[in-house]
Automatic annotation (TrEMBL):
Keywords: Thiamine pyrophosphate. PANTHER family: TRANSKETOLASE N-TERMINAL SECTION-RELATED. The keyword Isomerase does not apply. Signal peptide: none annotated. This is Thiamine pyrophosphate-dependent enzyme. Belongs to the transketolase family. Pfam families: Transketolase_N. Residues 14-262 form the Transketolase N-terminal domain. It comes from Streptomyces chengmaiensis.
Length: 276
């Protein structure tokens, strides 16, 4: 029996907590990929607050959904989501990227709630496809959600997995593309154009849904949309890198940043103002 999802308001509360903890972790001397972490905060909030069934290794593997963070550099957002939902303690987030910490600069399988060690970009969709096909083979009611960076799509293995997923009719696979339009070298369209991105996924045989990646109603509707039998789903989430962080909002320098105490206070104040 699948667990009941929390109330709708859970996602709103989670989004605030996730963004707050990302900002707090950005004080680490090793820096946090604050841009790509903040851009997926709302996606993770809806997933963990309302959509995922028995996440974080809760219950038998046949009765839960899987979340794979392919863009592992955004692990600060995942750690924040796990802390906000009680899988790990919030206090542990203070150890981010320290020697001996379970919270490495990319998510490691040793941490509860991490399905696979990721961060070698381009591999997550293949892992998700494997989970989805295994679930179908053994008659399990499971879904695989894979969060991908848009710059990551320049890795050819993604399109091999996309082609295979459509061929095998993996309709329990959901690819979520964080379309914040930045990669480490600059704007994605300047480095290697991805558009028309919707047409690309559709051309591989996927159902494609485009949403505002910060609008919970749109995200919720996409994730809860009825399955289209025989077709995997791609959700293109239009997001803003380092959304709401003063000085880093939609900029290249937000890719990896260490915020000093004054910058963190400013960012937390901006978050509090947004909440108000």
């Amino acid at each position: 029996m699948l667990t009941q999802a929390p109330p709708r308001k859970a996602a709103e509360r989670l989004a605030v907590d996730i963004r707050r903890m990302i900002i707090e972790m950005s004080g680490s001397p090793n820096g946090v990929h604050i841009g790509g972490s903040m851009s997926i905060a709302d996606l993770l909030a809806v997933l963990y607050g309302e959509v995922l069934r028995q996440p974080a290794d809760e219950g038998p593997p046949d009765d839960r959904d899987y979340l794979i963070l392919s863009k592992g550099q955004a692990c600060a957002a995942l750690y924040a989501a796990l802390a906000a939902t009680g899988t790990i303690s919030e206090a542990e987030c203070a150890s981010y990227a320290e020697q001996g910490s379970r919270l490495a600069g990319h998510p490691m399988k040793r941490l509860p709630g991490v399905e696979f060690s990721t961060g070698s970009l381009g591999h997550g969709l293949s892992l998700g496809l494997g989970v989805a096909l295994a679930g179908r083979r053994y008659g399990h009611d499971k879904r695989a959600f894979v969060i991908l960076g848009d710059g990551e799509l320049q890795e050819g293995s993604n399109w091999e997995a996309a082609m295979a997923a459509a061929h095998h009719g993996a309709d329990n696979l959901i690819a979520v593309v964080d379309r914040n339009s930045w990669q480490i070298s600059g704007r994605t369209e300047d480095c290697m154009s991805l558009e028309p991105l919707t047409d690309k996924w559709a051309g591989f045989g996927w159902r494609v849904l485009t949403v505002d990646g910060h609008d919970h109603d749109q995200i919720r509707a996409a994730f809860n949309a009825p399955v289209e039998p025989g077709r995997p789903t791609a959700v293109i989430a239009r997001t803003i890198k380092a959304r709401g962080v003063p000085g880093l909002h939609d900029t290249k320098k937000s890719h990896s940043a260490t915020l000093d105490e004054a910058a963190r206070r400013l960012a937390l104040a901006a978050l509090a103002g947004e909440r108000a």
